[in-house]
Amino acid sequence: MDSESPTHDTTHEPTRGGIDRRAPAVRCAVVTPVVSRRGRGGAPERRSPEARLDEAVGLAAAIELNVVFSGLVSLSEIRPATYLGTGKVEELAAIVEAEHVDLVFFDAALSPVQQRNLEKAWSTKVVDRTALILEIFGMRARTKEGALQVELAHLNYQRSRLVRSWTHLERQRGGFGFLGGPGETQIEADRRLIGDRIIRIEKELEQVKRTRGLHRASRKRVPYPIVALVGYTNAGKSTLFNRLTRAEVMAKDLLFATLDPTLRAVDLPHGTRIILSDTVGFISELPTQLVAAFRATLEEVLEADLILHVRDISHPDTEAQAADVADVLEDLGVEVKDGGRVIEVWNKIDRLSPEAREQVQNQTLRAGAEAPVAVSALTGEGTDDLLGVIERRITSGRVTLSVILAAEDGEGLGWLYRHGEVLERTTGEDGVLQVALRIPPERAGLVARRFGARRVHTM
């Protein structure tokens, strides 16, 4: 036996919800390795091993795998050949055989050598965290850009993993088929074909990015501020998006229920119009391939006037999840501590006990002007307060101008509506129209040039 501590096992009943009844579900074992602090250089873990295992099981459920076994494996160091020690590999091999496991989800990043050696030892297909998340993204992608981004990430991942093992998993699945099977990309394609396909996808993505750039430029000409929803996966972003916009975006209790960005216009309490953007959820140890591949998708976040960081405040690991989101945002160049641009939204307060709700209320009161906003996207509680906070933040940096127009200048009035936020219109006894206009300060000069400096005054 090796020096690793005993495995902590949790057996799960076969998953029944959402399974394709036309074929038996893939029987899956979930293995979450836990490296001791001594083995990780003393770096503290943000979340408990049990929470990591629960999340891994959730990832498997998101891809509709039938989880027949899940367990934690403690180890003092990572072995180059198999990640785990010999004793643990043999112990898990017995479980794989006894449970008739078709697929092992190893909740860590495996090298190609480690993956192949574990597949040989366990006589079944092995996928690591990156591969499973890619599979989920492949199933969730709905737009052309999303599908291209996922395929690009998948091809880059598979380029170093061209093996022809375990072709007995012949069932075709949704997404891009990262879980294996004859005729699928990772088995049939060689490096040259993958390289050619990557070049074609990158060209297509450049065209998509140009199109998105044109759309963003047109939105800037109609100066509606962009407000982006970000947060850990399953924090309730899409439910909140639906609540605020009355849209019908997919909002399920699944990890990565939303992949492609969705945009909707929302009118705030005093008439300010914004564009609300729902984005893909973040997750701990997000594969680097996906951070790079989805950068274009996350450009809505980079260019947003305001960012709503939605947190599941009822989750036991809410602090760790918030830290993971902050890491990804900072990698993208967003300063999370910039209180003027980022608002924390504490969602799912309907799940809290009365004592926990009181504690959350006290925390928000102590935080002052930059306090988090507590809401329940499910019931709507607190969402009116959230809209008010958004409007105050959006308008705080804007200037209000008084513009004088001739009564018959319908074209000029239309121009003001297109380029700013018209707050009030009054007509004098002489028929002259006075318009109160709120705009970003950098647009004040544009208004003055259009109507003449004498007819434009700061209020």
Automatic annotation (TrEMBL):
PROSITE patterns: G_HFLX. It holds the Pfam family GTP-bdg_N. Residues 1-22 are annotated as: Disordered. Coiled coil: none annotated. Residues 225-398 form the Hflx-type G domain. Keywords: Cytoplasm, GTP-binding, Magnesium, Metal-binding, Nucleotide-binding. The keyword RNA-binding does not apply. The keyword Cytoplasm applies. It is found in: Cytoplasm. SUPFAM superfamilies: P-loop containing nucleoside triphosphate hydrolases (SSF52540). Transmembrane segments: none annotated. Its main location: cytoplasm. InterPro entries: G_HFLX_dom (IPR030394), GTP-bd (IPR006073), GTP-bd_M (IPR032305), GTPase_HflX (IPR016496), GTPase_HflX_N (IPR025121), GTPase_HflX_N_sf (IPR042108), HflX_C (IPR045498), P-loop_NTPase (IPR027417). HAMAP family: GTPase_HflX. Monomer. Associates with the 50S ribosomal subunit. GTPase that associates with the 50S ribosomal subunit and may have a role during protein synthesis or ribosome biogenesis. Belongs to the TRAFAC class OBG-HflX-like GTPase superfamily. HflX GTPase family. This is GTPase HflX.
